Amino acid sequence: AQTVTQSQPEMSVQEAETVTLSCTYDTSESDYYLFWYKQPPSRQMILVIRQEAYKQQNATENRFSVNFQKAAKSFSLKISDSQLGDAAMYFCAYRSQETSGSRLTFGEGTQLTVNP
Amino acid sequence: ETGVTQTPRHLVMGMTNKKSLKCEQHLGHNAMYWYKQSAKKPLELMFVYSLEERVENNSVPSRFSPECPNSSHLFLHLHTLQPEDSALYLCASSQDRVGPTNEKLFFGSGTQLSVL
After folding, report:
1. Which of A25, A91, A103, A106 to mutate to test the interface with B (most CBs of B within 10 A)?
2. Residue A78 near residue A18 (C-beta atoms within 8 A)
3. Is pLDDT at B76 greater than 60 in this prediction?
4. In chain B, which residue's Cα lies nearest the Cα of A104?
């Protein structure tokens, strides 16, 4: 079974600075999908960014980018020019290519605080 | 993004009560999910309904009973719960396809459940 580990329960960053959230996963599969979801105080989980394992190029979405290291099974999220609205719980998630649909395995989450 | 609505937002119940959580999606998706979110633990997938048929039940206790009358509505019926069942229950939906997909999940804002 796949597992996802986020080793940083809490992180903080100054507004306008850059922060990197770590995620590692364990799998024996060669093809899969990885996601970062954000959960603000409103509690609604929102997709931040996603990466297909077969793509070597790191995904980017505006101020959000990932560092995908397939051999190391690492999938970190970099937030540039941090804003107060980025404060939230961030979850890393894995989806196997061998199962259809959208069943995700999540990490424990990292609580990000943005200081003004 | 919105489109998945959960009610009630908060629920307090005794161990002998029977209650139901409701989820409705307005996105035309064909799959719906129940996740349990406990503090400092990864989200746990409880139930998956794809095309209104339950396709996965991750050994959830029978005191949790899901119902999916159509592709837009999902219920979680609760009875004789335990205090350790207190958690945030999140509903999600997606558009399932045959084979692998990177389709994202759309989440509701959850029901915060407290069992006394």
Report:
1. A103
2. yes
3. yes
4. B45
